[in-house]
Amino acid sequence: MDCEQCRSQLDAYLDGELPAEQMSALHAHLRTCSACAADALSRVQLKRTIKTAGSRFAPSPEFREKIEKKIGARRPRKWGFGWAVAGALAVVLLVGALVSYLETRNLRQQHAYSELADLHVGTLASANPVDVVSSDRHTVKPWFQGKIPFTFNLPELQNTDFTLLGGRVTYLGQTPGAHLIYQIRKHQISVFLFPEDLVSWRAGSGSAKERAFNLETWSQAGMRYVVFGDASPEDLRNLSSLLKAAAQS
Amino acid sequence: MSAAFPQPGTFEELAMPLFGQIYNFAHWLAQDRDEAEDLVQETYLKAFKAFGSFQPGTNFRAWIYRILRNTFLNTRSGKKLAKTISLDDEESGAVAAATTDAQTPESILIDRNHQDLVTSALEELPLHFREVLLLCEVEEMSYQEIADTIAVPVGTVMSRLSRARAALRANLQQKLPRT
Q: Which domains, from first to last, does chain B contain?
């Protein structure tokens, strides 16, 4: 390697960019050529001085903080986190509202069930449980006309174990309704009929147990039916089926 | 490329460690503190917004320096400086060799006492020389990184560096007290 070659490669060498295979020849030349070695030294010193001189500007801590805040406050991860928090909050609120709604509804329903239970028990304990005493549905149904703001059909009970004892007008939440009393074996069953728009009865259909009583409820033809008594759930279901069939006829 | 630049995820983690260097480079480009701050702020906000388009595993430093440089070239002073750049025959290797030969490097011995001289010589360098020299000596970027940053081929980086050094040495020679 001659001096011209050496000098053309020196910068790349000092910049760490000279391919390894060319380095040994360069090293060999620098060991023997004092002029090129001095050149290399001056270039190294210049590099160092440029690095020092070129690093003279530093940002103020305030400026750094300002930029950190700008990108920190708008960091995608934080956005994501914020949305997640907002989302979680919304879910919590929604669930809270739903739970509170359901609780309120349940409370109202519980309240309604309790009231019906009281009506059922109170009526059976009374000396005159029914206002119209009849086992004939053709007597009972007309009796209610003019007393309650709706009409209904009652089932034919031949070939069943059920007996209609009679009926009376009752009130639930200041809404008049029909209270029919059926009997099966030794058990008496209350059948309540109310207009469907009674707030307390926004539930669908179902069976439930209220204290020691069983209960069947459903909605049909704008009416809310509640079948209530200490008879077995099966008896209640059978009576319910009869009532449903009658309401459709 | 991905093995060469293993990088952690967030923009802040990648960008903030470079803050001091980026500010320094911006100051060298703009040559004014307020302008440098505006430049850095714009660069960080632009890079932050565009971070989604940054491909993980590629060179983040070259990416954000490129944004800084392009931002500067779009400022008023950047446009003015860019106009004065004449690239003429710089791609020719002969030019680099000739300028190197024309100097007598052994005649200038620069040490720490000459820092002010070097600073003013750097300031007087044309923009395209100043930036490659700073990226190479201060940022210690490889030729490839410099090429990625200023969007030119590696060969151009080498010849431009060579010319920049020659120009700096020539300038320093004039400044140095005659011995």
A: 11-83 (1.10.1740.10), 87-175 (1.10.10.10)
Q: What share of chain B is helix, strand, coil (3-state, %, to 5)?
A: 75, 0, 25
Tell me which DSSP letter residue B58 carries: S
Identify any residues that bridge with A200 across adjacent strands, giving them in sequence order.
Answer: none
Chain B: closest CA distance from residue A91 (Å): 28
The reported pLDDT for the residue numbered B38 is 95
Task: Give residues with Cβ within 8 angstroms of B156, minimum separation 6.
Answer: B90, B91, B147
Element holding A137 (H helix, E strand):
helix A137-144
- Tell me the ipTM for this assembly: 0.84
Of B11, B20, B161, the CB nearest to A11: B161
What distance in Å separates residue A96's CA from the closest CA in chain B?
A: 35
**How large is the angle between the packed helices B19-30 and A61-73, nearest 10 degrees?**
110
Kindly determine whether residue B169 and residue A47, on different chains, have CB atoms separated by under 8 Å.
no
Rounded Cα gap, residues A184 and B172, in angstroms: 118
Q: In this predicted model, what pLDDT tens digit does every residue of A145-172 receive, in sequence order?
A: 878 878 888 888 877 888 888 888 888 7
Which pTM was predicted? Answer: 0.55
Residue A224 burial (CB < 10 Å; 0-12/13-18/19+)? buried
